[in-house]
């Protein structure tokens, strides 16, 4: 393309002459290439563009444009006749500098418009990138944990997570949380969270694992890496009666404790404590189950001068024998004595008592477990007086 102002050869797709700065576009936008615009740089760049376009003619000399300055001989000028047309009116010639200024302003407007469009596209892409980053950023999920006796010295609560992220990808994962309810991170999506096992407690106890799930839905509106609290649905854990703890529950709690960061020595110690507490509870339960329940004292009657006949109700089971206690006061601290009867016996005669004395009597059942007597609670108390002296 030839510049109409200076005659220089320029790029066919140019809008401004790079030699004189004149506007040379044919008014089309085809072939224009605009670099990316960032943020609010458009407003700041327009004055700079205008200034550069204004400076273009002065910055490039005739010699640099390749145009040689003509050499004119005064004699030659004198020989050239100058035609004069007195009948023709004066016609003003076009001012090339004015055309150049128009071109500069038009160029600046076009460039500013293109930069503005690029800036909008850049801002949109920036926001889209931020939104995409937030969607794929792990958000800390916080639960409210209500578990009596659960502290930082115990192992974590192991969790199982399943669901789909915002891209529709299936998620299957494991995690764990502490007493403060933190430790789980999820990207935007919808999930179900369940508890896999009880934590190992320093107290030698375990929690029952709830047979339910917690719904966690992280919306697209949440900010990048923002914390997400699970509202109005706390994790509530109740302790298992120690005697009911099974080996399977202990092993599951132990395995997950190791998996979630509890060191081997601590996990072994906690496991031993839980196992020992459970075994002791089981043994005590066995003993209690074999220990007879209290029987009922039916009557105490005098027989002869120094005798009392004591009758009670036989125990339904575990009655290896009976023990009868009698004394001269209700607290069984004065002249207290005991008499033993065998299994299945329901009465006994108390002999060699003092005459005209009031005796208080009670009875209890016993069973022999592992070679030792285990007694029931005492029965009710009854009293009777021996015969008076003559």
What is the element layout, followed by pairings?
Blueprint: H1 41-59, H2 62-65, H3 74-79, H4 96-135, E1 139-142, E2 145-147, E3 157-165, E4 170-177, E5 184-186, E6 189-195, E7 214-218, E8 228-229, E9 235-237, H5 247-259, H6 264-290, E10 297-302, E11 308-312, E12 321-327, E13 337-342, E14 347-350, E15 358-369, E16 372-375, E17 382-385
Parallel strand pairs: 1-8, 2-9
Antiparallel strand pairs: 1-5, 3-4, 3-6, 6-7, 10-11, 11-14, 12-13, 12-15, 15-16, 15-17
Helix pairs in contact: 1-4, 5-6
Search tags:
single chain; 390 residues; alpha+beta; Immunoglobulin-like; 3 domains; 5-stranded antiparallel sheet; 4-stranded antiparallel sheet; 6 helices; 17 strands; 28% helix
Put the structure in a nutshell.
The chain is α+β, with helices and mostly antiparallel strands. 28% of the residues lie in helices and 24% in strands.
What is the strand content? Answer: 15-25%
Overall strand count: 17
User: In the CATH hierarchy, what is the architecture of the largest domain at level 2?
Assistant: Sandwich
Helix content bin: 25-40%
Identify the CATH homologous superfamily of the largest domain: Carboxypeptidase-like, regulatory domain
Total number of helical segments? 6
What structural class do you assign from the helix and strand content? alpha+beta
Biggest sheet: strands, sense, closure?
5 strands, antiparallel
Mean of pLDDT: 80
> pLDDT below 50 for ≥5 consecutive residues: which ranges?
27-43, 57-80, 82-89
Radius of gyration: 53 Å
CATH first level of the largest domain: which class?
Answer: Mainly Beta
User: How far apart, in Å, are the first and last alpha carbons?
Assistant: 157 Å
| SSE run | HHHHEEEEEEEEEHHEEEEEEEE
- Domain count: the total is 3
In the CATH scheme, what's the topology name of the largest domain?
Immunoglobulin-like
Morphology call: rod-shaped
């Amino acid at each position: 393309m030839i510049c109409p102002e200076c005659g220089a050869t320029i790029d066919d797709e140019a809008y401004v002459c790079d030699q004189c700065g004149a506007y040379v576009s044919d008014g089309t936008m085809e072939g224009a290439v605009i670099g990316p615009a960032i943020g609010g740089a458009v407003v700041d760049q327009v004055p700079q563009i205008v200034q550069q376009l204004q400076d273009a003619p002065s910055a490039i000399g005739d010699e640099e444009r390749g145009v040689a300055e003509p050499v004119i001989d005064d004699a030659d000028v004198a020989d050239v006749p100058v035609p004069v047309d007195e009948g023709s009116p004066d016609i003003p010639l076009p001012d090339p500098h004015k055309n150049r200024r128009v071109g500069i302003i038009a160029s600046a407007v076009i460039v500013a418009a293109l930069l503005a469009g690029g800036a909008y596209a850049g801002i949109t892409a920036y926001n889209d990138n931020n939104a995409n980053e937030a969607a794929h950023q792990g958000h800390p999920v916080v639960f409210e944990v209500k578990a009596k006796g659960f502290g930082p010295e115990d192992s974590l609560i192991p969790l199982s997570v399943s669901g789909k992220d915002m891209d529709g990808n299936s998620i299957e994962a494991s995690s764990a949380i502490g007493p403060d309810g933190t430790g789980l991170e999820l990207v935007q999506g919808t999930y179900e969270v369940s508890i896999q096992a009880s934590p190992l407690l320093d107290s030698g106890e375990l929690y029952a694992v709830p047979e339910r799930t917690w719904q966690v839905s992280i919306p697209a509106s949440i900010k990048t890496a923002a914390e997400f609290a699970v509202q109005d649905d706390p994790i509530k854990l109740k302790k298992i009666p120690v005697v009911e703890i099974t080996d399977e529950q202990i092993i599951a709690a132990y395995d997950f404790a190791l998996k979630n960061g509890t060191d081997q020595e601590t996990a072994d110690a906690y496991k031993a404590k839980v196992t020992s507490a459970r075994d002791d509870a089981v043994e005590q339960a066995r003993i209690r189950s074999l220990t007879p329940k209290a029987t009922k004292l039916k009557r105490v009657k005098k027989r002869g001068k120094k005798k009392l006949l004591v009758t009670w109700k036989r125990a339904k089971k575990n009655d290896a024998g009976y023990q009868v206690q009698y004394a001269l006061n209700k607290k069984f601290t004065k002249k207290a004595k005991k008499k033993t009867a065998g299994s299945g016996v329901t009465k006994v005669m108390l002999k060699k008592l003092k005459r005209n004395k009031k005796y208080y009597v009670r009875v209890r059942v016993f069973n022999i477990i592992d070679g030792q007597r285990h007694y029931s609670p005492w029965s009710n108390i009854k009293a009777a007086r021996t015969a008076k002296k003559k």
